[in-house]
Hints:
Structural class: mainly alpha
Shape: globular
Amino acid sequence: MLSLLLTLWLCASVGAPAASAQGSTSTASTAGSTSTQDRSVSLKQLPGNILGDQKDVWLFPVKLVHGEHWWPTIGVLGVTAGLVASDAHTAPPFRTTDDFSGYNRVLSGTNSAALIAAVPAVIYGVGWLRKDSYAQDSALLAAEAVADGFLLDIPLKAITARRQPLSYTGNGPYTDSFFNGSHNPFHSGGFFSDHAMAATAVAAVLAHRYRQHRWVPFLAYGLAGAISFSRITTSNHFPGDVFFGGAMGFVIARYVVLPIH
């Protein structure tokens, strides 16, 4: 199944001769698509790009102080808070059922992480073999978005020390999950979900870069959604962790990584 998913992703990356021929500075002319020039990226530029991204990420509160982006921020934080408040009701159904055992085996933490990492790696490799700079840039931008998300998540996990649902039995109570888990940011679980963030970040980059193929966004976000949901069904994360992680992956990819700096 994983090889099939990778094949589909590969089709998305190299099956667009019009887009790839135009290179990383192109504007797609496919009917129904409106393309803008994305950020310049290369292996040499990547470390500097990530450092610049982190400045934008950590200075985001300054924009709030100046009255910018209030409604999206309120929306994301409001939904996250609502999901956290519902932990005692949303966690038990997944802790007391075996209905998702097959799904969880296929999209285990290891398999999901391998798939997320393999997608940009395969796209970059095939782009390199085909001398397709657009595919290579797409893979690097996806990797940049994931790296930015991890650098945000590490301190949040260390501070919040959120317990995993699987550390509880039965019906919880699940109300003491914050600040009572591991402060090791590389420990499983925590706030927010790395898998959800990374899957959504990769999906957001590829869905944007190959949006002239209308099926690509559906496939990209569909796979990201499946991976994100598996973090709940395996009881590695609460729904609020997954939602916030996915939101961060999307926001970082679309509004930090892709725009021209």
